[in-house]
Amino acid sequence: MTETAFAPRVFSGIKPSGGLTLGNYLGAIKRFVESQNAGTESMFCVVDMHAITVWQDPVELRRATREVAAGYIASGIDPERAILFNQSQVSQHAELGWIFNCVARLGWMNRMTQFKEKAGKNAEKQSLGLYAYPSLMAADILLYHATHVPVGEDQKQHVELTRDIAAKFNHDYGVDFFPLTSPVIDGPATRVMNLRDGTKKMSKSGESDMERINMTDDADTIAKKFKKARTDPAPLPETLEALKDRPEARNLVDIYAALSDTTAETVIAEHGGAGWGQFKPALADLAVERLAPIATEMRRLMDEPAEIDRILGRGAERAREIAAPILSRTYEIVGLIRS
Ligand code: ATP
Ligand code: MG
């Protein structure tokens, strides 16, 4: 089984589990746009069925689904070039997800660190869906024979599980049917950290709004959040190595690098020696410069929910055209009669 036997196709998704963050933008959306613009066939999904693995208020779920779609489009995803849709409109995701529930092993699922983090001490009270989530994610990807999945660092383990599921399916049924998909985790901001705790990832569903920058935050809010971001008192060092044990400082440097399309090395070369009173306002200005036009466009799009729904519906139609023959062939391989 070679990984190059399949035509290149990019797939990735974001959960409508809250408002989009700077972590989602830098670690995912910005890189999706780059992948689309590089000319690779690309599919971007609003993975609403993943969102409901934890409780979502139905009204808020609809709003958040449209916000993620608006975030994609406002950032540069072109729904004509890329296929943009919400997962639940393509029922094949759930169907292939079930097949993969029967391929994935409990031992594999038990190793998933995200479930452990999200479940915390209360694992018994979590939904079965939250536990099975990575197997549905494998279905999201393999339903389209996607070869590359741009994701943040936190999703690496789930893409590796996707490869394990593909390999076991191919092996058990003696076929070469599913590709061994590669995670694509690159750039300076594959793990944007929480602004109040540099050991935790910035997340949409995190507890406090002060720990994240939302893509729709206004300039004052962005400035305030960076100003209050936790740091140590030392100024920025002259070398990157000196940031090794300073996670909060390193995070702000990485965010600066990603927002300015450069590297952490370059940021340190330019700002080494600066104190926080200097660097934080510069970072806030840069973030506002980058995010404000996107936020304005997001608001404009969200004022037209029917137009967003139309785009998602059209994307889902195109997605089903690719998904249907792959699911049919999967059923045939497994031995399920379709008459
Ligand atoms: P939730 O808290 O509900 O899990 P989230 O912010 O983690 O939300 P997801 O929908 O789980 O967002 O992830 C969408 C994409 O954004 C994934 O590719 C993920 O790796 C990426 N991503 C999420 N948070 C970060 C982050 N802090 N830094 C970089 N990438 C991130
Ligand atoms: Mg997440």
UniProtKB/TrEMBL annotation:
L-tryptophan binds at D140. It catalyses: tRNA(Trp) + L-tryptophan + ATP = L-tryptophyl-tRNA(Trp) + AMP + diphosphate + H(+). A motif ('HIGH' region) lies at residues 16-24. It is found in: Cytoplasm. Signal peptide: none annotated. The gene is trpS. It comes from Roseisalinus antarcticus. This is Tryptophan--tRNA ligase. Its main location: cytoplasm. InterPro entries: aa-tRNA-synth_I_CS, aa-tRNA-synth_Ic, Rossmann-like_a/b/a_fold, Trp-tRNA-ligase, Trp-tRNA-ligase_bac-type, Trp-tRNA_synthetase. NCBIfam families: trpS (TIGR00233). Gene3D superfamilies: HUPs (3.40.50.620), Tyrosyl-Transfer RNA Synthetase (1.10.240.10).
